[in-house]
């Protein structure tokens, strides 16, 4: 994606000092050496600490780095934050170990509202877009969300393990140019409240999944799913309606 190519320039051009400044912007969002040191110190000390006590300690100390953080957040060990000033947590958010939250660009943001739970090994990367997850959403292990085109998940959704939400496509029509130089089409994903996505579901950009819908395990969602529809297959098709 263009954002990824842009950030690869951190190590591919300029002198050491220039590249270091680019790296500071990449991980903190600013060229402030003080903020870089403070963020590095807090994350280096707190990230690997085990125990439930350390999880609550991280929830408190990370308020100094995050764009917003509510009360009683629980952050397990080895959770990685890039550009933490563009990450916003509400009350009682739980983020399990080895998860990565990465806005990736200073225009991007990640918003987790109250009682959101992200299971282990998740990757949320927003690019220039945003990832917004409403109240009381459960996200299973190994989820991958690319929010360059924008992702919004309504409240009370169940997102099973290994689900992928991909809100951007590479442009590839010109065969005389490298695909990586042709840019991307950014298309938002909208998921209504009380939706259940089964294990290993893939949702592509430009899709809206209506309130109360269910998508069966292993399905590829390329087209909209209506409210209370039950969809399965590759590509996913509505086979019946709830109720």
Give a description of the structure.
With 243 residues, the chain is an alpha/beta fold. It has one domain (2-241): 3 Solenoid (UDP N-Acetylglucosamine Acyltransferase, domain 1). Helices cover 18% and strands 30% of the residues. A nine-stranded mixed sheet has the order 2-5-8-11-14-19-22-24-25. A seven-stranded parallel sheet has the order 1-4-7-10-13-18-21, with no helix packed on it. A seven-stranded parallel sheet has the order 3-6-9-12-15-20-23, covered by helices on one side. Strand 24 (229-232) and strand 25 (237-241) form a beta hairpin. It is globular, with a radius of gyration of 19 Å. The N and C termini lie far apart (41 Å).
List keywords for this structure.
25 strands, 4 helices, nine-stranded mixed β-sheet, single chain, UDP N-Acetylglucosamine Acyltransferase, domain 1, alpha/beta
What's the pLDDT, averaged over the residues? 89
* Overall number of strands: 25
Order of helices and strands: HHHHEEEEEEEEEEEEEEEEEEEEEEEEE
* Structural class estimated from helices and strands: alpha/beta
Radius of gyration: 19 Å
User: Uncertain spans, ≥5 residues at pLDDT below 50?
Assistant: 5-11
- First-last Cα distance: 41 Å
- Global geometry: globular
Number of helices: 4
Helix content: 10-25%
Q: Supply the CATH architecture.
A: 3 Solenoid
CATH superfamily: Hexapeptide repeat proteins
From the 3D structure, determine the CATH topology: UDP N-Acetylglucosamine Acyltransferase, domain 1
How many domains, as an integer?
Answer: 1
CATH class: Mainly Beta
């Amino acid at each position: 994606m263009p954002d990824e190519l842009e950030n690869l320039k951190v190590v591919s051009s300029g002198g050491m000092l220039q590249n270091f400044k680019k790296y500071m912007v990449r991980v903190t969002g600013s060229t402030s050496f003080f903020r870089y040191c403070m963020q590095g110190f807090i994350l280096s000390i707190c990230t690997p600490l085990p125990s439930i006590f350390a999880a609550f300690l991280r929830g408190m100390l990370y308020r100094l780095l995050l764009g917003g953080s509510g009360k009683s957040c629980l952050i397990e060990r080895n959770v990685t934050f890039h550009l933490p000033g563009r990450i916003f947590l509400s009350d009682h958010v739980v983020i399990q170990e080895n998860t990565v939250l990465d806005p990736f660009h200073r225009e991007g943001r990640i918003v987790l509202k109250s009682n959101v739970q992200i299971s282990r090994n998740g990757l949320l990367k927003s690019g220039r877009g945003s990832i917004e997850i409403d109240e009381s959403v459960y996200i299973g292990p190994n989820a991958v969300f690319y929010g360059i085109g924008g992702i919004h998940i309504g409240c009370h959704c169940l997102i099973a393990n290994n689900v992928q939400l991909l809100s951007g496509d590479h442009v590839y029509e010109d065969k005389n140019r490298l695909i990586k130089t042709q840019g991307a089409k950014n298309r938002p994903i909208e998921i209504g409240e009380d939706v259940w996505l089964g294990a290993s579901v893939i949702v592509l950009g430009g899709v809206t999944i209506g309130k109360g819908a269910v998508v069966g395990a292993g399905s590829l969602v390329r087209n909209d799913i209506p409210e209370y529809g039950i969809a399965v297959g590759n590509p996913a098709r509505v086979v019946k309606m709830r109720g």
